[in-house]
Design goal:
The structure holds three protein chains of three kinds. By secondary structure, chain B is mainly α. Chain B is built from eleven helices and no strands. Chain B has two domains: 37 residues; 207 residues, Orthogonal Bundle (MetI-like fold), CATH 1.10.3720.10. The longest helix of chain B is centred in the first third of the chain and has 34 residues. Chain C is α/β, with parallel strands linked by helices. Helices cover 33% and strands 17% of the residues of chain C. Classes of the chains: A mainly alpha, B mainly alpha, C alpha/beta.
Chain lengths: 303, 255, 386
Amino acid sequence: MKSNSGARVVAKVEPTLAHRISTKLYSKPKLRLQLLLSAPVTWLGLVYIAALLALLVTAFFTVDSFTGNLTPGFSLENFASLFTNSLYSTVTFRTIGIALAVTVVDVLLALPIAFYMAKVASPRARGVLVISILMPLWASYLVKAYAWRSLLSNVGIFAWLLRPIGLDTPGYSLLGAGITLGYLWLPYVILPIYASLEKVPSNLLEASSDLGAKTWPTLRRIVFPLILPGIVAGSIFSFSLTLGDYITINIVGGANQMLGNLVYSNVGVANNLPMAAAIALVPVLIMFGYLSAVRRTGALDNL
Amino acid sequence: MAITSSILTVIYLPLAIVLLNSFNSSLNMDWPPPGFTLEWWQRAGASTGLLDALITSLVIAACSAAIALVLGTMLAMALSRYKFFGKNAVSLMIILPIALPGIVTGIALNNAFRTLLGMQLSILTVVIAHATFCIVTVYNNALARLNRMGKSMEEASADLGAGVFTTFRLVTLPQMLSALVAGGLLAFGLSFDEIIVTTFTAGGGTQTLPIWILNNMFRPGKAPIVDVVAVFMVIVSIIPIYFAQRLTAKEAKAS
Amino acid sequence: MRITATVKLLAIGSAAMLALSGCASSNNGGDMLQSLGDNEKTVSLLGWPGYAEDGSTDPAYDWVTPFEKESGCNVTFKPYGTSDEAITLFKTGDYDAIAASGDATLRLIAAGDVQPLNTALIPNYAGVYEFLKNRDFNTVDGKTYGVPHGYGANLLMYNTDVVKPAPTSWSVVFDGASAYKGKVTAYDSPIYIADAALYLMKHNTDLGITNPYALDETQLAAAVTLLKAQKENVGEYWSDYLKSIQSFTTGDSVVGTTWQVIKNYTPAEAHVEAILPSEGATGWSDSWMISSKAKSPNCAYAWLNYIDSPKANAAATEYFGEAPATPDACQYGSADFCATYNAGDTEFEKQIWYWTTPIEKCLDGRTDVKCTDYAAWTQAWLEIKG
């Protein structure tokens, strides 16, 4: 009996407390907002923004060349070599070139397949297609890159298919690396474009064609502006992932290097974090430029 | 249709190579395979190092996705339901970890953990790093759903006297569920296959599956085992993807 | 004086750092242990892949478990991909001991990251090949910092169908490389500059190179020029076995540097041969060293002694594919183990220039010039690759 009544008391107190908080929160939207933001903003600020700023500061440090220990201070040495040594500008332009090419090709490939998935395929086929785009993402990135190594090799499928028609495999080269990178990031480009196409109402397309518009103008004038955010979101993935890659280029890129290799070499090989930090600012600035350019498209809500 | 199927062929061609190589009797995945064997599948099954790495990766991916789910949902609610000063800065902050190249995130976090915070690199540091770049996937899925849902249902619930928590539990959350599942699954997958940030944030004792694969690829006579792992992962991944798809399809039908 | 001349110089540079991070000492790693205590519970090791196998990769290869049973020290092992990665990892202070190649050891010693060893506490050290002891990559100022794990040479591998006549000199990858344009391969590390320097030492005597790890500015520039010319013919650089084995098997590479183990794993159908060219070769002799911040120094000492015991040493070095550190190991490996890797062959051994960290103070004894250090080599290497 006693325990029973105790339970009742507890049961009464709890909702009251929760209720009190709830009421308070209901009447104070500002407090609700603060509570919602506090944890994630603290996390991102403390973990990420602070780390990025610390990296920026490190770019002004130097390294004791023999012991490999950091020497804090304010030195512009790293930035001086970044700007004066032609190695860095050559590699930067090469990397941007590959990243742009990969992005353009991926978007061109992703558009038709995403359109087919969203607007042509039956709901059942659509489900199967989404699964078949998602599944390869689970085969390790490294394993796929090595699979391309055997496809591109001297005795691989490319050589076997192309040699009879007088061409040859691109081999381990910048082109080979570009193809592999484009392959690896393609699903990341397809998915946001598919998601944005799915939101385009089908009757909009019908209305346009009813009004006599040809297929191409319909796509260009009506569909394209609507899915632009999806395209941009996909391009952010392929562009940024290529910009920072240093593993694929090692596996299929032959004797070439990209920005990621310079950063990695300076951290992993030279143990020169300050120089790596200075070089890392190059892709950071490029991405900031890209992000601010595409912000107006609303793409940032589509990642 | 023709374009779609040819692209799908290209997507699956390397995977077919991987599948064949997992039975390749050559130690170095020579092409074309000189013969076929089940040895790699048996060896992979017997490898405790592989099992440990798989478990480590599952734990890391689950923890990162869980943290990302909580933080991402909070952010989506804040940004979809309120207007406030600094909103743009917050949304940029969410996107940055995925928009900046992994190597930048990796060295920045490595430096921060070790020198700023004096932390030992461990599973914990990997989870923190992964959760950070996974937030955005949950956030975007949740935000899109909240925007589509509108506020009317929540307002009705409040008018009927439901508290803030009750409304979230009984009205908002059920409607967001499939978006959260999709976002959480994407976060899980991102974390599971991540290698660059992991390289820089994992301590000596932490071996995730991608790191295990990396180490085994660079060892003589071990290469085909990693193909077994890749094939296995693709097959197993069908299960969560299938259920997420079904959930979405069911909701589409209901609405 | 405990602080050596070289180290004193470096101490000035890193003194400021000391105060800030507290994570590095610029002395010589402290005093060596005089006696051992009870073993701790765990020991954390860092080494090349395959240096400490516990059976988790393949139950047939396990020399860690017997050690754990015998010593009571639980082993955690982290493999690294390059010497440079090893240094970065070791500097975190998470490891009790490291197996480091000669291109890393001097850097660790100078930074005070490793402690001098009392070899009297490592009974199996007595059995190690004499030619591996007291070398400039494991001993500084008479103090021993590392015990040998095994050694090997960077050989020249070529495809016998394509590369004709059979090469006997490194010239096939340098002056004569254009004959195999796009099919030449080379090791992807700044330390590969020493291979070019060794070639110049024999063929361009005007430069006055006497030790490929002691290059002044002019000599380094000559090596860089040679390597830049070589790059035009290089198909790809390699740093992991698989890449090298695959490209020789498919014919994407037909000539370049290799390790004996790579030759062993390359299938017979690939028709490759590996030789020690007339100029000699660079090579490695890896040393196990103990961290100056070791949390388990007793277990670390126990491991160093264990890895030089004949049976464990045979298992570890044959698995990796290199010559063992002790002649007694030969009886434990497979029948032709020591012959395959030329273990104990002093004629072979004499032609190896073991990887040694290039430092400002010339390793060949010159005092009138400053030599280029590893940082300069790294920068040069990035520029060679372009």
